[in-house]
């Protein structure tokens, strides 16, 4: 048995009923209110900034311009000295050519045979002095005619051997050097110690070197 029609409730949204407007969610309303607050705050900040900056811009004074110096067009410009067309001949080319004629292809002087750029040793008439023959009396008997002296300790045909012995002398505290000479096509690399101004100093050095290294040593004249 069905209930009477009077007991039935009208369905939602049925015709004749008045619809209720849907309200926006709460979160959307809060977001809109927040945006309005940001806009108002930003506008207030811009107005305050303009009130501070604009007066400063208008108060700035332009920099003072310095007047340019008065340049008279009647003043004569300085004249530059003209350079010579060719350099003055100082004889340098001739001197270089003359020097090259005095040196052979190996760098030795044609006259004398000394190696160019190295000290020159002038051998004396004395005989080589060994470690057992170093008496001061024999040293004093030698002539003293050179302006400076050196002690020739050894001589080598091989330059590497000469360099090795020179380095050994330097390591032991002696002022050693090499003086090379070419004679009859043969090259001799002489190792010496010096120079010394006094002949007596050369005599003492000769005896010390002869005893220490057990070599023959001679006193020679020195020329840089």
Explain this structure:
The protein has 224 residues and is an alpha+beta fold. Among the domains are: 29-57; 107-223, 2-Layer Sandwich (Alpha-Beta Plaits). The chain has five helices and five strands, in the order H-H-E-H-E-H-E-E-H-E. A five-stranded antiparallel beta sheet has the order 1-5-2-4-3, with helices on one face. Strand 3 (176-183) and strand 4 (186-196) form a beta hairpin. It is elongated, with a radius of gyration of 55 Å. The chain starts with 25 loop residues before the first helix and ends with a strand. Residues 10-17 and 125-144 have low confidence and may be disordered.
Structural class: alpha+beta
Would you tell me which CATH topology of one domain applies? Alpha-Beta Plaits
Portion of residues in beta strands equals 15-25%
Number of strands: 5
């Amino acid at each position: 048995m069905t209930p009477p029609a009077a007991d039935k409730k009208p369905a939602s949204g049925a015709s004749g009923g008045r619809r209720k407007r849907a309200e926006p969610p709460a979160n959307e309303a809060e977001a809109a209110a927040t945006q309005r607050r940001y806009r108002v705050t930003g506008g207030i900040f811009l107005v305050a900034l303009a009130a501070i900056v604009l007066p400063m811009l208008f108060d700035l004074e332009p920099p003072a311009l310095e007047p340019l110096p008065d340049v008279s067009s009647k003043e004569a410009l300085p004249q530059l000295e003209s350079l010579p067309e060719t350099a003055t001949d100082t004889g340098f080319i001739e001197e270089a050519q003359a020097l090259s004629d005095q040196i052979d292809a190996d760098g030795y002087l044609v006259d004398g045979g000394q190696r160019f750029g190295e000290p020159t040793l002038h051998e004396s008439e004395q005989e080589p002095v060994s470690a057992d023959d170093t008496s001061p009396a024999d040293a004093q008997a030698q002539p003293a005619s050179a302006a400076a002296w050196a002690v020739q300790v050894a001589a080598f045909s091989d330059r590497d051997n000469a360099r090795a012995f020179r380095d050994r002398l330097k390591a032991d505290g002696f002022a050693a050097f090499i003086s090379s000479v070419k004679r009859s096509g043969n090259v001799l690399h002489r190792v010496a110690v010096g120079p010394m101004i006094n002949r007596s100093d050369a005599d003492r050095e000769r005896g010390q070197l002869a005893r220490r290294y057990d070599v023959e040593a001679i006193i020679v004249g020195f020329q840089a």
